[in-house]
Amino acid sequence: MHRRRDVRGQFTGAPIPADVLGRILAAAHAAPSVGLSQPWDFIRVTDDRTRRAFHAHVQHERTVFAATLAGERAERFDGIRIDGILAASMSLVVTYDPARGEPAVLGRHAIADAGLYSVCLAIENLWLAATAEGLGVGWVSFYREPFVQELLGIPAGIRPVAWLCVGPVTHLETTPDLERHGWARRRPLADAVHAERWRGRDDQLPVGSRRG
Ligand SMILES: Cc1cc2nc3c(=O)[nH]c(=O)nc-3n(C[C@H](O)[C@H](O)[C@H](O)COP(=O)(O)O)c2cc1C
Questions:
Q1: Which residue's alpha carbon is nearest to atom 6 within ligand 1?
Q2: 133: closest CA among 177, 89, 95?
Q3: Is the model's pLDDT at 41 over the cut of 80?
Q4: Which residues does the UniProt record annotate as the domain Nitroreductase (predicted)?
Q5: Which atom of ligand 1 is nearest to the CA of 184?
Q6: If you measure from the C-alpha of residue 175 to the centroid of ligand 1, how many angstroms do you get, rounded to a whole number?
Q7: Exposed, middle or buried, 118 (CB in 10 Å: 0-12/13-18/19+)?
Q8: CATH 3.40.109.10 assigned to 18-192
């Protein structure tokens, strides 16, 4: 879990053995899901034209985001790589089907997002399994959902949740890219743990010290 990284720049492009890919997808498919709805699907994308089309779309969205930045923030973003779409061995696109398991998905009547949470758990399982297999994964979210639906022929109502770049890597960094580039810092665990109520100070757990 602590070795896992979001990878953009370290993909080698070497192929992923079929048995390894099978184990990673099996790990994803073993995730918990609300009402046992298993609302995910996985689209394996290796076609160069498809990946190039997606890459061009992501580059455009990069400029859209960059236009919202100014000064030091804009300069920093300039040096940050946001995807490894063309360098990674393949892409795996994970989707969410809210109709899966309907009617009456047990546990979702009050929280519609519980379906999406389930898909994210499958993604995290996939990510950890890939790390254990020595592969890197990079989550790309610089896209508009209708573009990806059109590109991959995803039916209306089914949402692309993640475009994951997957493949062998030269190494996994020990520090997140965004921290290495001075864009953001990880928050101390102690700041995230509360006792009894929101912002209740917890001095009993060995979770380190708070920031500032
Ligand atoms: C929902 C989600 C979307 C993300 N989208 C992108 C993205 O579009 N481009 C990118 O470079 N990283 C993306 N990331 C990776 C995060 O930047 C990364 O997880 C974070 O900086 C922590 O680094 P680590 O995963 O190496 O620990 C995304 C991560 C998540 C969970």
A1: 140
A2: 89
A3: yes
A4: 3-167
A5: 21
A6: 13
A7: buried
A8: yes
